[in-house]
Specification:
By secondary structure, the chain is an alpha/beta fold. The protein folds into 2 domains: about 190 residues, no CATH class; about 210 residues, 3-Layer(aba) Sandwich (Rossmann fold). About 40% of the residues lie in helices and about 10% in strands. It contains 13 helices and 11 strands. The strands form 3 sheets. It has a 7-stranded mixed sheet, with helices on one face. Helix 1 packs antiparallel against helix 12 and helix 4 runs antiparallel to helix 12. It starts with a helix and ends in a 16-residue tail after the last helix.
């Protein structure tokens, strides 16, 4: 009984734990991240099929799937998206079928030795048993390869530039978004990861002053230098005439830079747009929070902020969202989205692999999607995020406990005393040798 319980429970625990490293690297909870660990079910199902029957192997596969989905739900507080769940369940099914195919293989010679009394059937078994075993083996290998291919094709595709003409996006910023720190000349020109992402949806143009916005209808304004009165008036007029602006204003910039104080390339450590933001309709608070904070918006998106401030006293034309961190204001025919943090777009706060900004699987926050949407374009969304470290620990514990109870139920139904009843294998018939005189 105990052995059956362990055999039905441990495979799910192993699959669950093998998928956690990828989850911890980004904080994304995606059932597709467990599709490769699910291949562990191939040898597990083969062993269970040999010793406990097909039903036990299927029960262990269902338990592993249930543990992963339970953990995904509890860690995020949201139901997993349908498409990743279907891909994951398909991988579980294929791995289980592959294991059942391998577990059905038996040595034909041994089977014949047990049935010596069937002398007339020996020749026929020698004819079809090897071919049948080869078909089973081919089916198992095929299912395992299909499961591996499903894992590859289920990956979220990298961002591609939209076809046709893209809207022009002007960028005014004192942050190193178009140059590499510590280098000079042409070798210093390099796009920051956030700019690389935005180029897939916009025609990005760096601009030095609001006076040079030209025909652009979108503007990213991130911790810029001080503007003159003429530039402030031009910026307000540009928004009023129908422009869409995303303003990142940080009262306490923490962007890590090696440039010395006084260097012209250093961005302002304190935002110089407070007066203009108040004209737009909200007041930017001077105090900033301490440290890095994972901030969840009302629609489930998550932003990683660093020493972010907030807003108060919104006018009738503005709404304060995101627990005071984001303000959206209608200005004439245009609109402005204001965030009280410019560290938001630092790739160290939203990207796990700096060399792969176009791979959504490497994002650690919804920053690219939030920025693109604020500027009027869309990026893939719908990611589920771990709410907290304690929440993840609790989710794993509950998932393991649920798997234990599932295994206990399977032990009661599929134990050694009930194995023949629930097994799909055809029972082997034996025949008594006739006694003398019969």
């Amino acid at each position: 009984m105990l052995r059956t319980l362990v055999l039905l429970w441990l495979p799910g625990v192993l699959v669950l734990l093998c998928g956690l490293p990828g989850l911890l690297a980004t904080g994304q909870v995606d059932p597709r991240g467990w599709m490769l660990p699910v291949l562990v079910l191939v040898p597990v199902a083969a062993g269970l099929r040999r010793h406990r029957g097909e039903a036990a192997a299927g029960w262990a596969g269902l338990g592993a799937a249930g543990m992963v989905l339970c953990c995904a739900f509890l860690a995020t507080g949201r139901v997993p998206a349908l498409e990743p769940v279907l891909w994951f369940l398909a991988a579980v099914f294929l791995a289980t079928v592959a294991g059942l195919s391998f577990g059905a293989l038996r040595a034909p010679a041994k089977a014949l030795e047990r049935d010596k009394w069937l002398a007339t059937a020996r020749s026929r078994r020698l004819n079809w048993a090897p071919a049948f075993a080869g078909a089973r083996q081919a089916m198992g290998v095929g299912c395992a390869l299909i499961a591996l291919a499903a894992w590859w094709f289920a990956k979220e595709p990298s961002l591609e530039p939209v076809p046709g003409k893209r809207p022009q996006l002007a960028v005014i910023s004192g942050l190193p978004l178009f140059w590499r720190e510590g280098q000079q000349g042409f070798s210093a020109k390099a796009d920051a990861p956030i700019i690389t992402v935005l180029r897939q949806r916009f025609d990005v143009k760096p601009v030095d002053s609001p006076l040079g916005l030209g025909r652009a209808k979108r503007l990213l304004l991130a911790q810029p230098r001080a503007f003159s009165m003429d530039e402030l008036v031009a910026l307000h007029g540009w928004i009023s005439r129908g422009g869409t602006a995303l303003i990142l204003a940080d009262p306490q910039l923490r962007w890590p830079l090696d440039l010395p104080l006084g260097d012209r390339r250093r961005p302002p450590s304190v935002t110089l747009l407070s007066a203009m933001i108040e004209v737009l309709g909200v007041k930017l608070l001077p105090n900033a929070g301490a440290g890095e904070v994972r901030h969840f918006l009302g629609d489930g998106r998550m932003l990683t902020l660093y020493a972010a401030s907030g807003f108060e006293r919104a006018s009738a034309n503005c709404r304060i969202l995101g627990r005071g961190r984001v303000a959206r204001c209608a200005v004439g025919r245009g609109s402005a989205t204001i965030v009280a943090d410019a560290d938001l777009i630092d790739d160290r706060l939203w990207l796990a692999d700096p060399t792969a900004p176009l791979d959504p699987a490497q994002w650690t926050a919804d920053t690219p999607q939030f920025v693109a949407q604020a500027l009027g374009e869309a990026l893939p969304d719908g990611r589920r995020w771990v709410r907290s470290g304690d929440g993840l620990v609790g989710a794993v514990r509950w998932a393991v406990l649920v798997g234990f109870f599932w295994a206990a139920l399977g032990t009661a139904l599929l134990g050694s005393w009930n194995g023949a009843r629930f097994s799909l294998a055809r029972p082997r018939l034996t025949r008594q040798n006739p006694g003398k005189g019969d």
